[in-house]
Amino acid sequence: MSKRDVKIACCQMQSGLGTKQENLEKMVAMLENAVSDKDVDLVIFPELAVTGYECSELYEELSEPFPGGESIKAISEQAKKHKVHIVFGFVEKAEKDGKPVVYNSAALIDDQGTPLGCYRKSHLVDGAETKYFEKGTEYKVFDTSIGKIGLLICWDMAYPEVARILALKGAEIIAAPAAWETEPNEGDWEIVNTARSFDNVLYLASCNHVGTDRELSFFGRSKISGPLGRPLAEAGDGEEIITATVDLSVLPELREGYYVLLKDRNPKTYGEITNE
Fold this sequence. Notes:
- By secondary structure, the chain is an alpha/beta fold.
- The chain has helices at about 20-35, 60, 70-80, 130, 160-170, 185-200, 250-255, and strands at about 5-10, 40-45, 85-95, 100-110, 115-120, 140-145, 145-150, 175, 205, 210, 215-220, 225, 230-235, 240-245.
- It is built from seven helices and 14 strands.
- The relative contact order is 0.16.
């Protein structure tokens, strides 16, 4: 079986609160740094990278539609320029039942500059997120030229059902923009990155915020984890870019061999999971 190598970069950064243009400029600068190695195929930025995380009263003002929003267009131009896939978090403006709503969303742009789609965070953190954002209801996997990419956002990683659904839909890589807080949750971050990649025998790339917003601080430690849960690359607590080359061709053999977590499921016994 021939190798299917994909080089992933996570651009761990601090976003200014409400300073959309400055954040986009920083993202472009980090992107150019990441793709200075011409082999990079996929670049991931944090949750709400475009707007900053803890600016809740500004979410509606900062929101933009997908795919017509200014940030989507700006990043799409960069994806086409550098021939790289990009995942990043933004505030999405939309409608539900005829009423305006906003979502905590992540966009996926392909290497031709085409917005392939976006994912709306389903498991919102109690507080500002539940106050301002509508919950997403769909789990999406996108078929790209570099492989099948699933999206989730931050706290979604704490729910095994989300990554499992993405895996059952064929995901080979899960991209996870995040804004995971420093206290008291540091150990949880390592657990969920390891567990979700191991549970589903796939690659998981999580890109976290760093720095302090208003009350919240973020510890970084973005990770690219392999299909057996082991970290392939890990960041520190400052702004930086981590990379790892992953081989998608090993996944079928692992899943058919010892790590039969998908093949040997017994879904007829899982009905209680969906009970209210």
